[in-house]
Every structure is written in C-alpha cells, then in structure tokens.
C-alpha cells in the first residue's frame, strides 16, 4: 500500500501535490498543504497543470472555478517562482571579479562594510551570501551571482516594476 510522503500514513490512494516547489505523493489530509498537480489528458505533450486544492469552503474560490473553465488551468503562484537561483560558481565569480578590480579581500571587505572572514568564506564556497551581501557584491564588483544571468543582462532588469518598459530598451541618438 502506498505511503504519504508527508505524514507517512498508508493510504490506498495518494494525490500528487506541489508543496513549496517539490512534488509529493500525499494523502487526503496532507494534500491541503500544497497545490494539486493534474496531468492534462488532452494528449498535449504530457504537461502538468496545477490547481488550488482548498477544503476551506471559500466562496470566492468555488465560484471562480465554476464560472470559468480557464481558471482551473491557471496554477497558484508559489513563493519559489520569484526566487533567483544562486549560481553554482558564485565563489569563482566573486574571486575573479575582486582580482580584476585589483582589490584584496581586506579592501573589498572594507568597501562593503563586511568582515574579511565573510569574503574569505564566500570565495571558498563555504557559505552562501545573504541577500544584502549579494546585492553589495553585485554592485561593487559589477557581477551577477544569479544562475544563468549575464552581468550585462542584469542591468536591463528593472527593480521597481519587475518588467521592462520601452524606456529600458530604447537608446537615443543625440545629433
């Protein structure tokens, strides 16, 4: 008999549910902690769809699912959707950028108002930078510590709105 991956209870049927970014096989009691994963049966390449599994009896959730069939194909936003992934070679990026700038670990630490030991541990890959330290390093060394993002692309991102505008793209020709 299958076992719930959250509580360990043996149940005859389990539901595939996405909980904090991970897909788990959960029993009926535990599936409310996440978002139920439904496989599309229309044969469209086996993609998965997510729908909110709420047993709270929320009237707005139940009315929206009955009023429109498109709402069932939209998945609930997860906090992990917005998170950037730290580059696996962040330690090398920091060390290489510091050396290119001609700074010692001590000088970089003073510039960032951090301890030299923090810089040393970051360059050895012993610790991950906090969000605050990551921003300071990216600004000071003109690098990106995010997975798959080039430093040149990072200047295109708009921190205020999260989306690009025409003004972000257009380069004016001053004649």
TrEMBL record:
<dbReference type="InterPro" id="IPR004451">
    <property type="entry name" value="MJ0586"/>
</dbReference>
<feature type="region of interest" description="Disordered">
    <location>
        <begin position="145"/>
        <end position="175"/>
    </location>
</feature>
<protein>
    <submittedName>
        <fullName>TIGR00270 family protein</fullName>
    </submittedName>
</protein>
<dbReference type="InterPro" id="IPR058562">
    <property type="entry name" value="MJ0586_N"/>
</dbReference>
<feature type="region of interest" description="Disordered">
    <location>
        <begin position="35"/>
        <end position="89"/>
    </location>
</feature>
<feature type="coiled-coil region">
    <location>
        <begin position="94"/>
        <end position="125"/>
    </location>
</feature>
<feature type="domain" description="HTH cro/C1-type">
    <location>
        <begin position="94"/>
        <end position="148"/>
    </location>
</feature>
<dbReference type="InterPro" id="IPR010982">
    <property type="entry name" value="Lambda_DNA-bd_dom_sf"/>
</dbReference>
<feature type="compositionally biased region" description="Acidic residues">
    <location>
        <begin position="147"/>
        <end position="156"/>
    </location>
</feature>
<dbReference type="Pfam" id="PF01381">
    <property type="entry name" value="HTH_3"/>
</dbReference>
<feature type="compositionally biased region" description="Low complexity">
    <location>
        <begin position="41"/>
        <end position="72"/>
    </location>
</feature>
<keyword id="KW-0175">Coiled coil</keyword>
<dbReference type="GO" id="GO:0003677">
    <property type="term" value="F:DNA binding"/>
</dbReference>
<dbReference type="InterPro" id="IPR001387">
    <property type="entry name" value="Cro/C1-type_HTH"/>
</dbReference>
<dbReference type="Pfam" id="PF26602">
    <property type="entry name" value="HVO_2718_N"/>
</dbReference>
<keyword id="KW-0238">DNA-binding</keyword>
